[in-house]
């Protein structure tokens, strides 16, 4: 067997032995040995292969799979710009802490920087976004070489999973392959070198033992009797299973936090983001906290950023569990200067918070929720609320990173029986459809996505799935406001910028989504928010379908301002 072919079979075999269950691959020439080896493993039932023609979508498919399964997912691409197209997904996986192995086929070293076709200096291409950049030794017909190949694969998987130390995340495994790439006799390795066949007991070549936390964090130094507010953002690893908070302590949680649907004994502030400006602007001084406990990385609301940057409020952060070799740190950096302490959550009996403050926040949140419930309107927030309410129990929901995730936070009623995902690592709209497809494949149950129209159009290649590819049951709800609705709520949406707004921010597209779906043989229907219960009923069949809901973005800014004014009036002053 030619060396490149043999090495490819060894690499894939070691993945399976290490517990890899899914791999994503894109067609190419230089990665041909790896593709053939993956196809053989798939046909033998050793792993599940997902083939995509768009590398960017393939990367986000892997992020979605890794998010749900908790396993490292290899993404195999050819050389050149194919590798660069994975960069957005690598950035998201890095910030979200999702294990991913970027397997980039490459020319051998003698062709790099020589003007050879489809050749770039791609080792280390992802910079600090990758946990490591590892170069596979060039395949050679040498007895014992396979031992090195297997050891390198094991090291790459260990770094991606963070098993022996470090955060899980993306790792690049650059694989230079010299021609001939494929052996005419395309069989599994049968040479006498025992390392080619791997360990007889089917175990991985290198057994990696999970590292314990490097240190036990001291409890946060909470001040007894202080007005204490909990803010929970993106990152479930800062809220370990079994976490308990004192009864009644107010919890302002984003939808990507486990505390959004289960406040762990605290008092959930479902309308808290509407109330917070009143506490910061002096309308309700009784709602102003003295100390804030932060879990995860808040990413959604400017009022929360103001809160955490306020020099008059003490900020105490609970970091993710720190494996060996990593320094505990808060989950965000833009307001890190306001953090006065980093530590573990104290025992609920040790908090001793101001219960009068807690009751005031609960009462204010209830008042705001009543205002919001009186007139949900027909825009994005109303659609988000209707979508979450219509989902079947046990569903997974992927929410787009632009307006939809904020609409869910502002208007939806949390549900503990629905698992919510969103690309809040770097909060991009790249690969939204592909990410949802990956979640559906990992969940293997009814999965839904709520995406804006621009996010949907940004990844229409996510609909491009070959007839032989595995598919999950995915329903994509597209909030179609013919452009960028979120910008109407920001500074550029003010009337003074009206002349420039529509072209450079609103970006209307006029795309016929039904025709686009038809071109991909994807079922499509239009619906109103009131029809979602029927439109989102599980089908029990694999495949993707699209439900388009038209909304009006021209009224979004005024509606938001009216709601905020109504909340301020309802809050009034402390009773």
TrEMBL record:
Which catalysed reactions does the entry list for this protein? isochorismate + 2-oxoglutarate + H(+) = 5-enolpyruvoyl-6-hydroxy-2-succinyl-cyclohex-3-ene-1-carboxylate + CO2
Look up the domain of life of the source: Bacteria
What GO molecular function terms would the record report? 2-succinyl-5-enolpyruvyl-6-hydroxy-3-cyclohexene-1-carboxylic-acid synthase activity
The record, for Gene3D superfamilies, names: 3.40.50.970, TPP-binding domain
Keywords in alphabetical order: Magnesium, Manganese, Menaquinone biosynthesis, Metal-binding, Thiamine pyrophosphate, Transferase
According to its UniProt record, the EC number is: 2.2.1.9
Database matches in NCBIfam families: menD (TIGR00173)
Q: How would you summarize the oligomeric state and partners of this protein?
A: Homodimer.
Q: Give the protein family.
A: Belongs to the TPP enzyme family. MenD subfamily.
- Name of the featured protein: 2-succinyl-5-enolpyruvyl-6-hydroxy-3-cyclohexene-1-carboxylate synthase
Per the UniProt record, the lineage of the source organism begins with: Bacteria, Bacillati, Actinomycetota, Actinomycetes, Pseudonocardiales
């Amino acid at each position: 067997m030619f060396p490149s072919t043999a090495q490819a079979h060894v690499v894939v075999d070691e993945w399976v032995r290490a517990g890899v269950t899914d791999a994503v691959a894109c067609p190419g020439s230089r990665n041909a040995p790896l593709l053939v080896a993956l196809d053989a493993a798939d046909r033998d039932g050793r792993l599940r292969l997902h083939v995509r023609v768009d590398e960017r979508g393939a990367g986000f498919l892997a992020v979605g799979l890794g998010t749900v399964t908790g396993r490292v997912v290899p993404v195999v691409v050819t050389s050149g710009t194919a590798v660069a197209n994975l960069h957005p997904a690598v950035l998201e996986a890095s910030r979200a802490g999702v294990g991913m192995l970027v397997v980039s086929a490459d020319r051998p070293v003698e062709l790099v920087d020589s003007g050879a076709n489809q050749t770039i200096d791609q080792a280390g291409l992802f910079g600090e976004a990758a946990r490591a950049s590892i170069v596979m030794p060039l395949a050679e017909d040498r007895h014992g070489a396979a031992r090195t190949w297997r050891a390198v694969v094991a090291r790459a998987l260990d770094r991606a999973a963070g098993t022996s130390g470090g955060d899980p995340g993306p790792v690049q495994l650059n694989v230079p392959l010299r021609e001939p790439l494929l052996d005419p006799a395309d069989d599994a390795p049968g040479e006498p070198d025992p390392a080619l066949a791997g360990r007889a007991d089917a175990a991985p070549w290198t057994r990696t033992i999970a590292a314990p936390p490097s240190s036990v964090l001291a409890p946060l130094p909470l001040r007894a009797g202080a007005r204490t507010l909990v803010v929970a953002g993106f990152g479930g690893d800062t809220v370990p299973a079994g976490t308990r908070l004192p009864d009644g302590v107010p919890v302002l949680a984003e939808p990507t936090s486990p505390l959004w649907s289960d406040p762990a004994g605290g008092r959930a502030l479902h309308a808290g983001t509407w109330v917070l400006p009143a506490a910061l602007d002096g309308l309700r001084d009784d709602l102003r906290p003295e100390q804030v406990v932060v879990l995860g990385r808040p990413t959604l609301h400017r009022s929360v950023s103001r809160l955490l940057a306020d020099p008059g409020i003490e900020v105490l952060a609970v970091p993710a569990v720190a494996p060996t070799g990593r320094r505990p740190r808060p989950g965000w950096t833009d307001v890190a200067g306001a953090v006065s302490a980093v530590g573990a959550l104290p025992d609920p009996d040790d908090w001793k918070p101001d219960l009068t403050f807690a009751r005031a926040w609960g009462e204010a949140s209830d008042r705001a929720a009543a205002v919001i419930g009186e007139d949900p309107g027909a825009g994005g927030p109303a659609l988000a609320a209707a979508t979450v309410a219509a989902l079947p129990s046990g569903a997974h929901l992927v929410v787009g990173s632009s307006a939809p995730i904020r609409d869910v936070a502002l208007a939806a009623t949390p549900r503990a029986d629905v698992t919510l995902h969103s690309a809040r690592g770097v909060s991009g709209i790249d690969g939204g459809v592909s990410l949802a497809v990956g979640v559906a494949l990992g969940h293997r149950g009814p999965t839904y996505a709520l995406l804006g129209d621009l996010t949907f159009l940004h990844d229409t290649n996510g609909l491009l799935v070959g007839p032989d590819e595995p598919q999950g049951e995915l329903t994509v709800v597209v909030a179609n406001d013919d452009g960028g609705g979120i910008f109407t709520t920001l500074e550029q949406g003010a009337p003074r910028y009206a002349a420039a707004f529509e072209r450079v921010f609103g970006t209307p597209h006029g795309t016929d989504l039904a025709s686009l779906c038809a071109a991909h043989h994807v079922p499509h229907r239009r619906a109103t928010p009131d029809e979602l219960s029927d439109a989102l009923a599980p089908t029990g069949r694999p495949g993707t379908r699209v439900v388009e809901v038209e909304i009006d973005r021209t009224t979004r800014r005024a509606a938001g301002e009216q709601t905020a004014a109504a909340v301020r009036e309802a809050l009034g002053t402390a009773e």
